[in-house]
Amino acid sequence: MESMTRTLVAFHAHPDDEALLTSGTMARAAAEGHRVVLVVATDGDLGLAADRFRSGDALATVRLAETRESAAALGVERVEWLGYADSGHDGPVPADPPGTMRFCRAPVEEAAERLAAILTTEQADVLLSYDAAGGYGHRDHVRVHEVGARAAEIARTPRVLEATVPRDTIARAVRWAARIHSFPDGFDPTTFERSFTARADITHRIDVRRYVGAKRASMRAHASQASNDGSQSGDRTLAAFLRIPRPLYDVVFGREWFRDPSVRGRAADGIRTDIFEGLP
Description:
Layout (H helix, E strand, L loop, with lengths): L6 E6 L4 H5 L1 H9 L3 E8 L15 H17 L3 E7 L23 H15 L3 E4 L4 H4 L1 H17 L3 E6 L2 H14 L23 E4 L4 H10 L15 H6 L5 H6 L1 E5 L21
Parallel strand pairs: 1-2, 1-4, 2-3, 4-5
Antiparallel strand pairs: 5-7, 6-7
Helix pairs in contact: 3-8, 4-6
């Protein structure tokens, strides 16, 4: 019997978030014949980058172009920007740019309606989003959780999966990266020991080892976020990850994890290995 084709919508806060958290799953779904759509909430205009990427609104333009390049490497068929600006990680929220607003200021219902329109048009089977803490607490990631959950309600999307990482796994990856290159000033690697999800609460573990080449290409597409100049010391996190040699890279990034918020703990028959398993 021929398998059913599904539609996967991955919703992320900033350009490059898809590369780090869900690119392997996206590439696998596309390779297996499913339709994959990428939605980014913000243009990433406040991301750190070398000076050559900055002048006026140039960084936002560059980062959205990088997202399209990343999507092409993954087999994504549609890329959408939800229309908001980057809110920044901490400190006072900057003023809204002309014609748009910082995502953390966006009314949840308004943003959810925008996303729900895409989910409905695409007849999405699965929405990838974030957990209530936004993984590591970034205010735009928290808003992605809020908007994603509400949009799925509006569009009646059958399944929402929260992209995450087992705390021990990402802490180990950061420690390995730290052996190869230094992180920027102010970067606290112990943050990851308190972030994301306890292993016992993860419901889906997806094997993406066959697709790590696409995942690496997705990361590499976001060149501005691996850049550095005299105003920043140490390598950017993305650059450090890309310097991890193969096959260690394949081991570190060969699996991706999700939590189904509708399930309390794991299913009775254990962790799931297919994001579409059990759908009507």
